[in-house]
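Cross-check.
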Amino acid sequence: MRVDIITVQPALLESPFNHSMIKRAQDKGFATINLINLRDYAINAHGQIDDYQYGGGAGMVMMCEPIANAIEALKKERTYDEIIYTSPDGELLDQPMANALSLKENIIILCGHYKGIDERIRQLYVTKEISIGNYVLTGGELAAAIITDCMIRLIPGVLGNEESALTDSFQDDLLAPPVYTRPAEFQGLKVPDVLLSGNFKNIEIWRQEQAEARTKQRRPNL
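Predicted model, tokenized:
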């Protein structure tokens, strides 16, 4: 998978992609993440990529020309499955969406900033708009990092144990059950006996029951 991220703050994304599983995915050749500084496509020597909005109002708007030029330059190199815009009014990111996106080969993520992007870019280029929650961030960079992380970790070979991704919360519309490790007793709290029994059938039944109970209690909407 190749993910090209267009941003006005590329430095914000350098650390998240240079550690843990995402770094491993890149080192092993499962994924390529490319940061494109939108100011490289600025309309003038001052690095301008935004302007006042028509009709007045507070806040600047990201201009058409720099974004269009950046996208067109990328499209000359390859065909993209999706051009994603990180937007508060986009489709809410969930696990099924992450599963579907992980099957794509080439993706552009356009990070919003200021008051957003000129609407014409959304009409002409964007194929999918994604929100990571009902709140507003300073910019779309952190959202882009989250989207990228949840896609790439699902690529076969990225995780040490592929079954791990299949048992994550939300994969079957349930929260994950409680998990334990050594010691068997900690500050008076013991690991449930069933997990120490070695009876894998009973363990799976217990985990399913716990997942259903936890989901009903904490996330009944699922």
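The chain is about 35% helix and 20% strand. Strands lie at 2-7, 32-37, 50-52, 60-62, 82-92, 106-111, 128-131, 185-186, 189-190. Passed to J.P. for a second look.
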